Amino acid sequence: MSLQMISTINNSSLLQPGFSLLNFDGHVFFFGQKGWPKRSCPTGVFLLDIKQNELKMKPAIFSKDSCYLPPLRYPALCMLRSSERADEYQYIIHGGKTPNNELSDKIYFMSLVSKTSKKMTFQCIEKDLGGDVPEARYGHTINVVHSRGKSMSVLFGGRTYTPLAQRTTEKWNSVVDCLPSVFLIDFEFGCCTSYVLPELQDGLSFHVSIARDDTIYILGGHSLQNNTRSPNLYKLKIDLPLGSPAVTCTILPGGISVSSAIVTQISDTEFVLVGGYHSDNQKRLACNTIVLEDSKIEIVESVSPEWTPDIKHCRMWFGCDMGKGSVLLGIPGANKQIIPDANYFYILRCKEAEEDKEEELITQICSQTSSEDPGDSAPFEDSEEFCFSAEANSFAADEADTYNEDDEEDESETGYWITCCASCNIDINTWVPFYSTELNKPAMILCSSGAGHWVHAQCMDLSETILLRLSEANVKYFCNKHVDLNKGLQTPQKVVCLKKPPMKPLRKKKTMKLSTSMKKSFLRRLFE
After folding, report:
1. Where does the UniProt annotation locate this protein (predicted)?
2. Which residue in 11, 276, 321, 373 is deepest, having the highest Cβ count within 10 Å?
3. pLDDT, tens digit, for every residue of 309-319?
């Protein structure tokens, strides 16, 4: 094993306990950021690109027909391979915590739909289930088993909020263990069935589960009810005949009392167990090798890496499997870093360099990353890229598509949210789209006066028609302040309506009114 420290540059505070890593064709993607996604990456999914001694996070792209995937921490996650083609697979994501500390009961399928040399596009689909649907939870596991040519997913463990009827004001958001039920999920028909097994007496969370063929091994886990970490090793066997499935459980010797451990696969039948806790305040620094052969499991202690003093003396640690025998580990930065909530990160490689090659992952792995719950999320800081310094092999991503916040001006000072003029009223907290072409940023136009400066189109009283003409025409523009330069197309000034005096109506000609006697006299003279 080799341990390598990554020197944090900035924005590592968003990488908190509970994140997940997904491996698509050797490319590792980060999921479950701290806080809600911002405009720079609305999907909340990033590519981990290790290249030229830097680890960068590049925003991922989703197809237009994808559903929204919120950033979920502590979800259950596993890989589901296609029955037709072994090289096609997707990830199942269930449960987890949202940035508002709400628990999700939804289940998502995330798959890679297109891949080019510059970008990878994903599709996320939400699945509806019927029957015994698992309640919202976190800290649980999900695996896929195969039996008699059929496949099913198996969900177990986790924590959930106390039922509403049992909540008190003092412990409104307290959590409890989920019931130790085993859920079989058939995604083909969208149905779910729960099973109660006598061998599973206590609810478990933050345990490790490893699936192979029709068998799942459950190792460790923490029980809130009695505040213990189970030393038992459970073997779940799922038989899928033509009729109803059969689920059996056997307690095996040789378990390990640990929670929040991480499992990574190093070969077809070998896995490495690292990290976790013996107790709330005692980390587990030992490592184990797990071998699965012929429906048997063997757990032996292996040589641990040379842990750094920071790792040995820190109170908590967290991480996740990167795939291909590598693990990303993090420890709190405490007061050693200027950025609050910043963490130190390490890459632990459990395979030798000559063994580090692409392998088919036949076994499904699912492990939780930390039982340390930091509680409510701190205010989210907008961040488009996380940069780290490291020496590692690249995951072969094109540098041209890397979003680098150093390449972009600070929006708070020189970007879209500047004070462009004395009468500017554009504020990042209250702004709403004014033009039909605006989405999440105000429309701006360059004033050609001097070295040039940007102004908001709305502050210049530009109509949408004039704005479109300016964007299409190759002419110079001058803002209201520099309009006296009279060059190119200028800001149209407001036309002051002249008050015109109303026209006097034509006078009517006066007519003489004749009396009755005069009319009679006139008529007599007319007929004489």
Report:
1. Nucleus
2. 276
3. 888 888 889 99
